[in-house]
From TrEMBL, chains A, B:
One of its GO terms (molecular function) is DNA binding. May play a role in DNA repair. It seems to be involved in an RecBC-independent recombinational process of DNA repair. It may act with RecF and RecO. The lineage of its organism: Bacteria, Pseudomonadati, Pseudomonadota, Betaproteobacteria, Burkholderiales. It comes from Acidovorax temperans. The keyword Oxidoreductase does not apply. Residues 80-175 form the Toprim domain. InterPro entries: DNA_Rcmb_RecR, Rcmb_RecR, Rcmb_RecR_Znf, TOPRIM_dom, TOPRIM_RecR. The keyword Cell division does not apply. GO terms for biological process: DNA recombination; DNA repair. NCBIfam families: recR (TIGR00615). This is Recombination protein RecR. Belongs to the RecR family.
């Protein structure tokens, strides 16, 4: 492939995408060059536009093109409840349920000391400030239910409670539609403890 | 994710890459926005540059930024042997062996009537012209050894032989380093027939 430098540069650039190795990058580059030049130009423009214009919401820290995102500005939202999630994808999942009408705070990560991600990197100080605005009555921790997400929830919970805030966590239990026989034991144990 | 249009456009643009679904596209977009804006800009520039400057070599049909690629222009190459491959990736694999010093013709595809890819789409006419330049003595068919690659090799072979050209095919046989016990039976059968 030494015959074309532009193609080699493109393959190397595609490898910076998460989960894309050298074979996938080659396949993507050849596909775009052979079958979808318009797609290549569209992706080029979209990347440039997003890199220039997308930044963090000043209130909830999610991605937005404005100073404050449309969710934070929505007067229909219940400002007394603040839901803390790890990523915009998690926020999107919660939004799609239609079951939550409060506001969000997006950590843009989770505590992971081994990767050098501490309280500062996930914006703990900013969350404290946001949750202490006098309007927020309840902080709902919706970090993931894996080791790092649970650790993050624990640290946030301690910090928020020390400010006298009411902190809750999404319920753990048996997923809807599942049969007990096939549910893992620690989930059943949690569902037993948290029975209502 | 409705809060930011630029991000939504980027996710849709990423989905045009082969093998990228909506989850992967989201993950890629968030990764670039959160951790690698420079990568997003680099990929944007590389895509635009490649889409503008990469086209097909006038002689061998591979990707190049010049009119004729560096391989075709190399005077050290043995112009009497022409190797026909499906893609630049296949050409690259052959080049890395260091065992072939002739020239190439890249089909940029394979015969696949169900997908509407016929002799015209793989440049059969162009290959005929290229192989009939009076210098080429032998055409080596190095299409893949799957059904479509074999069918392509058959069609090309018939057409080239009708022009009186000497046509050969890469040898089928037992891969280097393999144990017979684990080699599939049709490969062993072919290796028996083609024994030397």
């Amino acid at each position: 492939m030494s015959s074309t430098n532009a193609l080699e540069v493109l393959i190397q650039a595609l490898r910076r995408l998460p989960g894309v190795g050298v074979k996938s990058a080659q396949r993507m580059a050849f596909h775009l060059m052979q079958h979808d030049r318009a797609g290549a130009e569209a992706l080029s423009a979209a990347l440039h536009d997003a890199a220039q214009n997308v930044h963090h919401c000043a209130r909830c820290h999610t991605f937005t093109e404005d100073d404050i995102c449309s969710t934070c500005l929505d007067p229909e939202r219940d400002a007394s409840r603040l839901c803390v999630v790890e990523t915009p994808a998690d926020q999107s999942a919660l939004e799609r349920t239609g079951a939550f009408k409060g506001l969000y705070f997006v950590l843009m990560g989770r505590l992971s000391p081994l990767d050098g991600i501490g309280p500062k990197e996930i914006g703990l100080h900013k969350l404290m400030e946001r949750a202490s605005d006098g309007v927020v009555q309840e902080v709902i921790l919706a970090t993931n239910f894996n080791a790092e997400g649970e650790a993050t929830a624990h640290v946030l919970s301690e910090a928020l409670k020390s400010r006298g805030l009411h902190v809750t966590r999404l319920a753990r239990g048996v997923p809807v539609g599942s049969e007990l026989e096939y549910v893992d034991l620690s989930t059943i144990a949690h569902a037993l403890v948290d029975r209502r």
